[in-house]
Design brief:
The complex is a heterodimer of chains A (309) and B (299). Chain A is mainly alpha-helical and 309 residues long. Chain A is built from 13 helices and no strands. Chain A is flat. Classes of the chains: A mainly alpha (309), B mainly alpha (299).
Chain lengths: 309, 299
């Protein structure tokens, strides 16, 4: 396992470096400077503004400076919020984004697995068809469709739940319920389909026949023997799932007006706040690569057959 | 007696993979309904786009016409879907947005199809070190969250529909190349490839003339599902304000507009979200149906 992690890191570190370099030079290739939209200033002042952001130095030197700072955990100053660092802005938004994303993943796994097992044990019966129709529909209801509709139905029309107005450090169930469910539903759908398919396979395996022959009660056969095997495909899906949930959070936070990173990123992208956009891209790329790696490594641990390839 | 002999003398009518697949597909009601609806949606999308180029064609309200006295009008007989907050006819706009979304889906998928098939077939046919090297590149690219690159491209160069086609297409080819490579490796050993080689066909001629046509089954399945994914990706960009820009629109942009005006014009979000949902559902039904039809052992 350690060898595998080490090998993945050997690839991940240069990949991350390439991502940072590509993002950096892409932004330097952008037409105009971040200040070009502001009112006309004298050449001297503009020179000082550029100097303050190191934009007067040669590009290569700027890159070295940026990477050196990055290695010290400094993402540089925001170009639009004059007195704030990108790191501070991200630190403000990260808790909200992580709580929503984490809650959505937990919900998706819990409900998705239960629904999938439930459907698999009733294969080709009406309950199974109902559950799987729900799953197909769920796949086609991404957060950007679901979140506004939830907000419209439960917030604007029924007025059951607030549709916006979460403040930092004030995470209540009523504020988080709609965003988390909207984010989790497509994942519930995908996970339940995965679990159903692999559970049906697992229940037909020789190991299960042996467990039954041994006289184990059915509940133990299902939960102790079949489910762990059936979970393996879900483990390898965790990486992509987390990546989808993280990006889906951008939409959710925009719709429900939540003060997370996604909301900040959307605003930053529209305002061309290059350093902030880049900071979020680097952070999210690193997180996604990390979770992909963990998901692959766990898959290798759980399924020895996968290690050989 | 001679009748039977005549019948026997006729060559047996072969059923190709595609004949079989069509037969099986026709027995799957969800896939048939999905396919018919998709054809209808595509037609409507084309009508919507023509209505943008030639305003007032087909007797529809022009896409960009501002009815100043009918701002945020709920659906009526004259404006089937109502009007938006600018006073534009929503039906025309949804058709237009549907057309753009489908166009992005089809074109970007075609781009990814082209890159993926060429890359995968080349790697699979040559094999050995070249294959290992080419697929290692794919492995490394797989771990890169490209969505952020697409976002960066849009931020830096400004959203533009051609950039969207190419950026999304260039991101989505990885899985395609893996599928194609796997298929190519299994087909490479087949007798018909031997025969083509014996006939003196060159490498590229064998790959693109003999192997690629035989691996279209899984490719078509993947492409169908990929169109849905691309439409979603474009909608995501549009939702963040980084997708297609005015005067163009797309389903994602319409949903974003609707989300911003839910209090005053809730029908805006309802129509555009419903159109998106049905379109995605159809692609999934057709894709799943095609998979079952082309790969009977997988059922």
């Amino acid at each position: 396992m350690l060898v595998q992690i080490f090998r993945r890191l050997l690839i991940a570190i240069p990949t991350m470096f390439v991502i940072i370099a590509a993002a950096f030079f892409l932004m330097r290739a952008a037409p105009g400077s971040p200040f070009s939209s502001e009112r006309q200033v004298s050449a001297e002042i503009e020179q000082r503004m550029l100097a303050a952001y190191d934009l007067d130095k040669p590009v290569g030197q700027q890159f070295v400076l940026y990477v050196t700072r990055l290695l010290q955990g400094d993402l540089g100053p925001s170009m639009k919020y004059k007195d704030k660092d990108v790191g501070d802005i991200i630190a403000e938004g990260l808790p909200t984004s992580l709580i929503i994303g984490g809650a959505a993943m937990v919900l998706a796994l819990a409900v998705g697995c239960s629904l999938g097992v439930w459907a698999a044990l009733r294969q080709n019966r009406p309950e199974d068809y109902v559950a799987m129709s729900f799953a197909v529909a769920g796949v086609c209801l991404p957060p950007l469709v679901l979140a506004p509709l939830f907000s419209l139905v439960f917030g604007v029309q029924l007025k059951w739940l607030p549709t916006a107005g979460l403040y930092r450090d004030q995470y209540t169930v009523s504020h988080l319920l709609l965003p988390v469910v909207a984010l989790a539903l497509p994942q519930i759908a995908i996970i339940s389909r995965l679990i159903r398919a692999s559970m049906i396979d697992a229940m037909r395996s020789n190991a299960i026949r042996t467990a039954r022959a041994k006289g184990l009660p059915e509940s133990q056969v299902v939960w102790r023997h079949a489910l762990p095997v059936a979970m393996i495909p879900v483990v390898s899906y965790l990486g992509p799932a987390i990546s989808t949930v993280l990006t889906g959070g951008f939409v959710i936070e925009t719709v429900f007006q939540l003060p997370g990173i996604g909301k900040q990123f959307t605003i930053a992208a529209l305002q061309r706040d290059y350093t902030l956009v880049m900071g979020v891209v680097i952070l999210y790329a690193a997180m996604i690569m990390f979770f992909n790696m963990m998901s692959d490594v766990m898959y290798g641990v759980l399924d020895p057959r996968a290690r050989r390839s | 007696m001679s009748d039977i002999a005549a019948t026997l003398r006729q060559p047996a009518k072969g059923r190709s993979l595609w004949d079989d697949a069509r037969r099986r597909l026709m027995r799957n009601p969800a896939a048939v309904v999905g396919f018919v609806l998709l054809l209808l949606f595509t037609l409507l999308g084309i009508v919507g786009m023509l209505n943008y180029t030639f305003p007032g064609l087909f007797g529809l309200h022009p896409v960009d016409m501002l009815y100043r006295d009918k701002v945020s009008l709920a659906p009526t007989a004259e404006h089937m879907f109502g009007t938006d907050t600018e006073g534009r006819d929503l039906f025309s706009r949804v058709l237009f947005g549907l057309g753009i979304s489908l166009a992005v889906g089809f074109v970007a998928t075609a781009v990814s199809l082209f890159i993926g098939v060429v890359w995968g077939a080349t790697a699979g046919y040559i094999g050995g070190g070249v294959d290992a090297f080419m697929m290692r590149i794919v492995d490394v690219l797989y771990s890169v969250p490209f969505i952020f690159f697409v976002i960066l491209l849009m931020v830096v160069f400004g959203a533009n529909i051609w950039l969207i086609f190419i950026a999304i297409g260039a991101v989505e080819w990885l899985t395609m190349s893996r599928i194609v490579r796997g298929q190519t490796i299994s087909l490479r050993q087949k007798e018909f490839v031997e025969a083509a080689k014996a006939g003196g066909a060159s490498g590229p001629a064998i790959v693109f003339g003999h192997i690629v046509p035989n691996l279209m089954g899984p490719v078509v399945v993947f492409a169908t599902l990929n169109v849905a994914r691309v439409i979603l990706l474009e909608s995501f960009l549009s939702f963040l304000g980084l997708g297609v820009q005015e005067p163009l629109t797309s389903l994602g942009k319409l949903i974003a507009d609707g989300a911003n005006n839910m209090d005053t014009a809730p029908w805006m979000i309802v129509w555009s979200a419903a159109t998106m949902f049905i379109a995605l559902l159809c692609f999934n039904f057709v894709g799943d149906g095609l998979r079952d039809a082309l790969d009977p052992k997988d059922r």
